[in-house]
Amino acid sequence: MPKDKDDGGWKKFLWNSDTGELMGRTGGSWFKITLFYVIFYGCLAGIFVGTIQAMLLTLSSYKPTWQDRVAPPGLTHTPRSDKAELSFNLNDVESYLSYTKSLRDFLAKYDDEKQADPTKFEDCGDEPADYKHRGDLESDVGSRRACKFPRALLGPCSGIEDRNFGFTEGKPCIIVKLNRIVNYRPRPPASNESIPVDAQSKVQANVIPLYCTSKKEEDAGKVGEVKYHGIGGGFPLQYYPYYGKLLHPQYLQPLVALQFTNLTMNTEVRIECKVFGQNIYYNEKDRYQGRFEIKIQINNL
């Protein structure tokens, strides 16, 4: 009599109770297979963990290992919009409310009471000075003190007396900062040759100068006077270097406040601001590397 094809063929393959085989193999065979793969994958995991640990031994907790590949610092501003545009109407408070709120929020950490702890902050003066060396990055000194930057240094753009930062009068302020790079020391220009003639008056010792002008020739007469508020009208060297979040958690960047006091009304004005230094470079593909552009339009109709 022919054997029934459905005589438990696949079931016996999975488990044959007569011979004690699982999927055609005895328990001893499965034990050997399991042991092999446990050892095999255990060795792979050990190699992986060992490689990661070896790599971690080459890394510093305080600074990037390949810092020579870090781009020069970006120059950014507050308030900031997606299209780098400030447009408002003097007769409509709501049109500039978000800008003034952004400035107040940004400057809140520069309040005097937040810089009062002498164990975390020190007075570095209100005149440009040389770099403030606080020891090596990888030493047992621990957390370093930071230079105070009282917001009063920003004058009428500090938000202390004028909570609207000049927007109600059509003389808006923006706050500018250099982005942080661990252990970076910006170097002032070696000479005036690489600086536009109009910006050469901004050069002085121990300061990274900042200069703003019209981006387009047709806007040259529309920018008007730009006032620079801060220490030396630029970024003073005593605030550098920055030691990173672990050693400099309370660090405050120096700021420059720009106030546009006589912009042409009811037209868009395109402005470019740049910092100048020996180790500061520009990249046309990165609109914030060492420079930025901003379009401002003030309406009063």
Automatic annotation (TrEMBL):
GO cellular component, as recorded: sodium:potassium-exchanging ATPase complex
GO annotation (BP), single: sodium ion export across plasma membrane
Subcellular location: Cell membrane; Membrane
Transmembrane segments: 35-59
Keywords: Cell membrane, Disulfide bond, Glycoprotein, Ion transport, Membrane, Potassium, Potassium transport, Signal-anchor, Sodium, Sodium transport, Sodium/potassium transport, Transmembrane, Transmembrane helix, Transport
MF terms (GO), sorted A to Z: ATPase activator activity
Main location: membrane
Role according to the record: This is the non-catalytic component of the active enzyme, which catalyzes the hydrolysis of ATP coupled with the exchange of Na(+) and K(+) ions across the plasma membrane. The beta subunit regulates, through assembly of alpha/beta heterodimers, the number of sodium pumps transported to the plasma membrane.
Subunit structure: The sodium/potassium-transporting ATPase is composed of a catalytic alpha subunit, an auxiliary non-catalytic beta subunit and an additional regulatory subunit.
Protein name, UniProt field: Sodium/potassium-transporting ATPase subunit beta
Native source organism of the sequence: Periophthalmus magnuspinnatus
